[in-house]
Amino acid sequence: MKIVKLEDFHADGGWRTLSYLKVTTDEGLVGWSEFYEGFGAGGTTDVIRRFAPAVIGLDPRPVGKIGATLRAQTQLAPGGLNNQAIAAIENACLDIKAKALGVPVCALFGGPFRERIQLYWSHCGSFRVTHAALFEKELGTPGIKTLHDVRALGQEAVRRGFKALKTNPLLFDGPKPRMAPAGFQPGTAMLDKNIDNKLIFAITDQLAAFRDGAGVETGLLIDLNFSQHVEGYKRIAKAIEPFDMTWVEIDLHDPRGLAAIRRSTSTPVASLETIYGVKQFRPFFEEQAVDVAIIDVPWNGLWESVRIAAVADSFDVNCAPHNFYGDLASLMSAHFCAAVPNFRIMEFEADDMPWTHDFVTKKIVVENGELVLPTTPGWGAEVNEEALQAHPAKRRP
Predict the structure, then answer these.
(1) What's the count of helices (H) and strands (E) in the chain, helices before strands?
(2) 3-state DSSP call for residue 111?
(3) Neighbour-count burial for 254-275, b at 16+ CB within 10 Å, e otherwise
């Protein structure tokens, strides 16, 4: 079996572009993966295309060897776009290998450890604020204008069966609600990281409203992204202790700084979604910097993600996938969750544009806040190319 073609596809996902890689073999087997390049300048697609000549003609089934070969070629520029492109190729080859063997992808790694994957509602309220008009038009969702609306959203999450929800800091101090800067927006957001009581009180008021609506048994998570320096993260983590959080999510590339935050609070700390490869993860485990390691499967590749999870397990650390993508990526992340013993909970976009569910040939099944793992070979679904063509990307990724 040989790889004969690599093709990339891009479609409108509402507030973002959804991207897919198709790898075709000379025996007719096809592998799919979902990737993403909506941050920064993009360019993952171009890197994938540059890798194509090195991959065409290879047998797709020795997936680890393919990945190691491509990483050897990028030693002078590891991580970043190179890593994301390699991961997309690896993930599509895993789909092929599993199909060739007639097994689900997780079976290649000793799974499944579980057939039902517990989910949390990601960006709960956040995108209803930042993309209010789109969500009202396409989903008919009520606007989030006050803390009373936040409380109602917590009730909605419970009605829909979710046992946990994650939000971002929301501000109601102006003519329109807005999301607090996350640290990666254009302008000075990456520089202005001086914490003040106004933001702390806004966060605690928001969490109080969610707790009131969702009840004491629902897990609460909040994502602070890159918004603070160590001091700010410490103060927020301390302030939210009364809400019995599942975790506070922090993006920080300093193992010792993150460890200092974790030691300063009883609020569990989750992080590392922007870290690549087992070698970059290991210092954070050695410093005991996290309670939960967040691993991005589309960016690391499932093969490397399982290796990272194994190292995390040796430090008694649980793992959760970073997954705010489309349905194929949700299936990829679900197979990761089924392939490792130290799984905590899976991120899931409960609010998504209705047409994006047509991008896969088999709908994801969610029951009582749990994703039901497919048992069919590969990821459990193919990509519907006609549906992608019916919703062309509004912007080049």
Answers:
(1) 14, 15
(2) coil
(3) ebebbbbbbeebebbbbbbbbb
Structural domain count of the chain: 2
144 with 206: CB under 8 angstroms? no
**pLDDT tens per residue, range 367-378:** 999 999 999 999
**Residue located via tokens 């009730």:** 155
The CATH number of whichever domain residue 248 belongs to comes to: 3.20.20.120
DSSP 321-370: E---S-HHHHHHHHHHHHH-SSB--EEE-SS--GGGGGGBSSPPPEETTE
Looking at the structure, tell me whether residues 327 and 246 fall in a common domain: yes
Domain for residue 393, yes or no? no
User: pTM for this one?
Assistant: 0.96
Domain enclosing residue 224, as ranges: 108-379
- Strand 164-167 versus strand 219-223 pairing type: parallel
In this structure, are 199 and 160 located in the same domain? yes
Asked whether residue 353 is assigned to any structural domain, the reply reads yes
**Tens-place pLDDT, residues 151-182:** 999 999 999 999 999 999 999 998 999 999 99
From residue 329, give the alpha-carbon distance in Å to each of 73, 247, 302. Answer: 26, 23, 11
How far apart (Å, rounded) are the C-alpha atoms in residues 129 and 112? 37
Q: Does residue 272 lie in a domain region?
A: yes
Q: Which of 42, 71, 102 is the last residue of a domain?
A: 102
On whether the CB atoms of residues 97 and 60 are closer than 8 A, the answer is yes
Backbone φ and ψ of 68, nearest 5°: -65, -35
41 falls in which pLDDT band (50, 70, 90)?
low
90: Cβ contacts below 8 Å, ≥ 6 apart? 33, 63, 66, 67, 301, 302, 303, 304
Same domain as 167, residue 93: no
